[in-house]
Write a structure and sequence with these properties.
The structure holds two protein chains of two kinds. Chain A is mainly α. Chain A has 13 helices and no strands. Chain B is built from ten helices and 18 strands. The chains are: A mainly alpha, B alpha/beta. Chains A and B meet through helix 4, helix 5 and helix 11 of A and strand 7 and helix 7 of B.
Chain lengths: 424, 324
């Protein structure tokens, strides 16, 4: 005895309304899949583009802004130590630093950073800072000790207000870049879920039609299945390639750029401390302590050099190896500077620290700074090429995926419609 | 629903307009840069000494020399001078920001001035070489700490001998007499200490000058900095109304800015002495003997002429006074 329910089912199975809802469900499922897949792929493409054209360049801008401002300040301190009119190289270096700072700042402002308020504060203070340095220079040239006081005020503005503001912007920018990178490589759970449900639905619909109409295949549904498989295949390949390129961009690119930048900022601060110890002349122990503390973060088993060098063997690695050698020779010269100063030979200590001889700390530091800059540039190139392939892998995939699913939906509607006609 | 959407769009649109309209953009106000370590108001004065906590004394009286000066390079065995001679260098604390007294010549990077010359004379007397000196640059506030910690042998840094300071360190006999005055921009209308009521007046931390300003009946607003030149920077930037300290230091600041002047009469007495550790009384006696010699043989007068006479007028060598 068939139950009421079973009888209702039998009626429904043979009614066109059952067929109609099956068709509608299939079409809706395919459209949903197209939407989810399209949005997912498009998001990935957007994230990859944001990372390559916004977040990462802005992180670099912020890093370059910090570096050039800190370097300008350290250079001004060296100029003070040199006595009289500062050497032309120092003046040139300071001018170049300010020009670079302004360029990175205006670029960062143009693109629109994560910390607009911080950049605005820096923008407001750069003319004040350079004004103070020029006043210091004028007074120094006239032999007036008040010049040193202007330089101290300038340095205080830089160290206590400007650099912390840049640093806040840099951190915010890095956080945004990391978020973009996560977004660009996140696992597409929604797409997977919807694809499974719709795929299962298509198989079930196919079976249902086969059972009911005694025809083995419905051409519309077969075409829809093919379109979905094509779309999913595209998504799979695209997303896989994108994730692979993206992880390459991180590992060979931005991670190494970040590590080399950190090392560069640390040695820059240490170089400023080396100068400030001499400026303080006998009462600069705090600066020397800080020098030891900063450089200590780079050396040894747990040091940053060790950490960044053990990973792989590429161009950046080679450059960083050279940088470590240069860093060690700078430390050796620094030790001599301290020995001379502590023994009371202040003029010789200053000469060794800021002179332009090949054996001076200034020369060693410049070489170190140059190789770190080269490492950053090389890492940046690796990032850019990887990020470009990542973008290429998913470029247009969102629209393509959506269109394929829409085509599938149309095919399914047509296929089911053919069966429906048989009822008329 | 649709209406509220329109409303939101309208509001957003208006907000967008007002951002681009110039009158709605808040003009950022200029924040004047300030010297590092500047302190204002009551906080400028560290731990006021309770009246009566310091015993009465004659600040000018120092330890009497015991006999004539030993020859350079032949300091008596066991003495502080012998320890310095064996070390090979005299370690001294000086200022590098007090023009005329102890300052860094920006052209050469050398430390120069009246105070520095006094110390070079001490090195000459111990080693026969005025250059056998290691300078430690200190602020006014560091003068007593570097002596009590033993970091330096002698401090010569425009230091006024006071009964309070004599509790912590020894002083030599007076090598320069001065008094506190007021320095302003020309045409400021301030004529002397009586006009300083409510005005912002700058002095270096840990000095007698700032302590004297705190007890002025006119009640100025105190601004304390680490170095005297920081006061000049603030005066030039219009952040303070006046600087007040020993006339000699003020003369060194006026020399760097012809738009400033010293006004009013000296309202304190500031005898300058060199500070030496309580545990080295023999070094005090030695330097006192040396001062007596340089005041007698014209060396003191030559230094005074070189650094101070054109700006401070003639001054005879301050007479030596000794404790009974």
């Amino acid at each position: 005895m068939p139950t009421v329910l079973e009888r209702a089912r039998t009626v429904a199975a043979h009614s066109p309304s059952r067929l109609r809802s099956l068709g509608a469900l299939t079409v809706a499922g395919l459209l949903l899949l197209g939407l989810v897949g399209g949005v997912t792929l498009d998001n990935r493409a957007t994230a990859a583009r944001d990372l390559a054209t916004r977040s990462e360049p802005l992180s670099l801008d912020a890093q370059e802004l910090y570096r050039s401002l800190a370097d300008a300040d350290a250079t001004a301190a060296s100029g003070f130590l040199s006595g009289g009119v500062e050497p032309a190289e120092l003046r040139k270096r300071y001018d170049a630093d300010i020009a670079r700072a302004m360029a990175s700042l205006s670029h960062a402002t143009e693109v629109g950073g994560a910390d607009a308020a911080g950049f605005a504060e820096v923008a407001r203070n750069i003319p004040v800072y350079t004004g103070l340095v020029e006043t210091a220079r004028t007074n120094n040239r006239q032999g007036q000790p008040v010049g040193a006081a202007y330089l101290r005020e300038a340095s205080g503005l830089m160290q206590n207000s400007m650099l912390p503001a840049v640093n806040r912007g840099y951190q915010a920018q890095n956080a945004r870049a990391a978020a973009d990178a996560d977004r660009a490589t996140a696992f597409p759970w929604w797409l997977l879920l919807v694809a499974l449900v719709v795929g299962a639905g298509l198989v079930l619909a196919q079976r249902d039609l086969t059972r009911r109409t005694r025809r083995i295949l419905n051409p519309g549904l077969v075409a829809a299945s093919l379109a979905v498989m094509l779309a999913l295949g595209w998504a799979l390949v695209g997303l896989g390639a994108e994730a692979f390129a993206m992880s390459g961009a991180r590992a060979e690119g931005s991670d190494r750029v970040a590590a080399a930048s950190e090392i560069r900022l640390i040695v820059l601060r240490a170089r400023a401390d080396e100068s400030l110890t001499l400026v303080a002349r006998g009462t600069g122990k705090e600066f020397e302590d800080r020098f030891q503390q900063e450089t200590g973060r780079l050396t040894g088993e747990k040091g940053l050099f060790h950490k960044v060098l053990t990973v792989r063997h590429d161009e950046v690695d080679t450059i960083l190896h050279g940088a470590r050698t240069r860093f060690e020779s700078w430390l050796a010269i620094h030790k001599k500077v301290r020995e001379l100063d502590d023994a009371g030979d202040y003029p010789a200590a200053v000469r060794l620290a800021i002179g332009s001889e090949p054996t001076s700390a200034a020369t060693a530091f410049t070489a170190l700074d140059e190789s770190l800059a080269a490492a950053i540039a090389s890492g940046q190139r690796a990032f850019t090429s990887n990020a470009a392939s990542a973008r290429g892998a998913v470029a247009g995939a969102g629209i393509g995926f959506g269109l394929l699913c829409a085509l599938g939906a149309a095919a399914a509607a047509w296929g089911v419609g053919q069966r429906l006609k048989e009822y008329r | 629903m649709k209406k509220s959407f329109l409303l939101v769009a309208l509001v957003l649109g208006l907000a967008g307009c007002s951002v681009s309209a110039p009158e709605a953009t808040p003009l950022p106000s200029a924040v004047p840069p300030r010297p590092v370590g500047v302190v204002e108001g009551p906080a400028a004065l560290p731990s006021p000494v309770a009246p009566g906590a310091v015993p009465e004394c004659d600040p000018r009286a120092s330890l009497r020399p015991d006999g004539p000066l030993p020859a350079p390079g032949q300091m008596p065995a066991g003495s502080s001078m012998r320890r310095i001679q064996d070390r090979g260098r005299l370690i001294v604390g000086v200022d590098q920001n007090a023009f005329l007294f102890g300052y860094r010549n920006p052209a050469t990077g050398q430390l120069e001035g009246f105070d520095v010359e006094m110390l070079r004379a001490v090195a000459q007397a111990i080693f026969g070489d005025p250059n056998a000196i290691t300078y430690k640059v200190i602020t006014q506030a560091q003068r007593i700490p570097v002596i009590t910690s033993g970091e330096v042998d002698i401090v010569a840094n425009t230091m006024t001998i006071t009964c309070g300071r004599l509790q912590q360190v020894h002083f030599t006999t007076v090598y320069y007499e001065d008094g506190q005055q007021v320095m302003v921009q020309k045409g400021s209308g301030i004529k002397g200490p009586a006009d300083l009521g409510g005005k912002r007046v700058c002095a270096s931390k840990g000095t007698t000058s700032i302590a004297e300003l705190a007890v002025l009946p006119a009640k100025p607003v105190l601004v304390a900095v680490d170095n005297w030149t920081d006061c000049l920077v603030m005066l030039q930037q219009g952040q303070i109304d006046a600087i007040s300290t020993d006339a000699g230091i003020l003369a060194g600041l006026v020399a760097q800015d012809p738009n400033t002047e010293i006004v009013g009469k000296a309202f304190t007495e500031e005898p300058h002495g060199m500070a030496i550790s309580k545990s080295n009384p023999d070094l005090v006696r030695f330097v006192n003997a040396l001062l007596e010699k340089t005041k007698a043989n014209g060396e003191w007068a030559a230094s005074y002429r070189r650094w101070l006479e054109t700006r401070m007028g003639p001054q005879p060598p301050p007479p030596a006074k000794y404790l009974p």
